[in-house]
Amino acid sequence: MPRARLARAEDLASLLELYPHANPKMPVLTDDTAQRIWTSIAAHPGTSIFVSEAQATIVATCMLITAPNLMRGGRGHAFIENVVTHADFRRQGHGHAVIHAALDAAWEQDCFHVLLQSGRPDPGVHRFYEECGFVPGVRTGYVARRPDSS
Questions:
Q1: Under 8 Å CB-to-CB from 68, ≥6 apart: which residues?
Q2: Whether the Cβ atoms of residue 98 and residue 60 lie closer than 8 Å to each other
Q3: pTM for the full predicted model
Q4: How do residues 66-88 score in pLDDT, each as one tens digit?
Q5: Cβ–Cβ under 8 Å, residues 50 and 15
Q6: Mean pLDDT of all residues in the chain?
Q7: Residue 57 maps to a domain
Q8: Are 132 and 96 in contact (CB under 8 A)?
């Protein structure tokens, strides 16, 4: 099975090439904007990006965001976002590797639970998340969008 690792500073360009595999219509960031955001992510406590490589290329990623919590006996909670696997490398274990690395990190930080939402209608995507240990229907997800966004 592939192994995941934490993203490093030099991974930014590869991540930017990978993200359109999740959303080809995603706006392209300028280099300066991408670097500014990347620096902010790296400095933000509780935020980690995991990657999996094949053929010296990043082919899967996800972001883990952990937060302290005054409920649940003080145990934190976590969110997984930006799960992407390159189309040519799906069903090879790379997605599982990054998700499990993120879950392991959340459990090491004594998080009570990890939340993940998917807007993808593909049943295969939902099976993938269930195979990774996520249980559908436990909570109801809601989304509020900024009024001027699409």
A1: 74, 76
A2: yes
A3: 0.93
A4: 999 999 999 999 999 999 999 99
A5: no
A6: 94
A7: yes
A8: yes
CB of 17 closer than 8 Å to CB of 51 = no
Q: 73: domain CATH number?
A: 3.40.630.30
Give the model confidence (pLDDT) of 92-106 as tens digits.
Answer: 999 999 999 999 999
CB of 132 closer than 8 Å to CB of 62: no
* Domain encompassing residue 52: 4-131
Any domain includes 11: yes
Q: Is the pLDDT of residue 142 over 80?
A: yes
DSSP string, 36-87: HHHHHHHHSTTEEEEEEEETTEEEEEEEEEEE--SSGGG--EEEEEEEEE-G
139 domain-assigned: no
In a domain, 12, yes or no: yes
Counted domains in the chain = 1
Which pair of tokens denotes residue 2? 């592939």
